Amino acid sequence: MEHITETSTLKAPAERFAGDVYLDMIEAPTAPARLAAALVRFTPGARTNWHSHANGQTLYITDGVGLVGTRDGGVVRVHAGQTVKCPAGEEHWHGATDTTLMAHIAMVVGDADGDGTTWLEPVTDDQYAHALDAGD
After folding, report:
1. CA–CA separation, 70 and 29 (whole Å)
2. Spatial distance between the Cα atoms of 47 and 70, rounded to a whole number of angstroms
3. Are 86 and 53 in contact (CB under 8 A)?
4. First to last CA, the chain
5. How far, in Å, are 54, 70, 92 from residue 89 at the CA level?
6. How do residues 71-108 score in pLDDT, each as one tens digit?
7. pLDDT tens digit string along 101-114?
């Protein structure tokens, strides 16, 4: 057993996120394990770029209200205590609403090359504004 008493909070890289986003790694894949898990905190208006995961992604919302959007225009409004599963290969994004923060635990099972994430272009302001109006 390994008892980890503290992890560093890191600012998420600007080339993958818009706005202020902070990461606390919970688990980084170490062979033979492939689980990556992180607590991710989004300030109001902050969000990921479009991205996909080779083996899918599970998001457990811990605080606030957020949005998860897909390429087909689907948007889910998420609240603390809810879980969203993004299927393998589905291009999506997630982040906070424009007025509230959102935090989630992001979990992915990586592939042989790492965490299996393919990062894409930023979500445009128009796409984000549409998601704010469309979230159920």
Report:
1. 26
2. 13
3. yes
4. 42
5. 5, 11, 9
6. 999 999 999 999 999 999 999 999 999 999 999 999 99
7. 999 999 999 887 77
Contacts by 8-17 with C-beta closer than 8 Å and gap 24+? 12/40, 15/49, 15/119, 16/48, 16/49, 16/51, 16/119, 17/46, 17/47, 17/48, 17/49
Give me the sign of the Cα torsion angle 28, 8, 78, 127.
Answer: negative
Q: At 8, is the secondary structure helix, strand, or coil?
A: coil
Q: Provide the 8-state DSSP code for 59.
A: E
List all residues 6 or more positions away from 55 whose beta carbon is below 8 Å from its beta carbon.
88, 108, 109, 110, 111, 116
Cβ–Cβ under 8 Å, residues 95 and 61: no
DSSP-derived letter for residue 109 is E
**What is the spatial distance between Cα 53 and Cα 108, in angstroms, rounded to a whole number?**
7
Alpha-carbon distance of 6 to 127, in angstroms, equals: 37
Residue 58: exposure state from Cβ atoms within 10 A (0-12, 13-18, ≥19):
middle
Nearest to 50 by CA among 96, 16, 100: 16
Omega before 29 within 30 of 0, i.e. cis: no
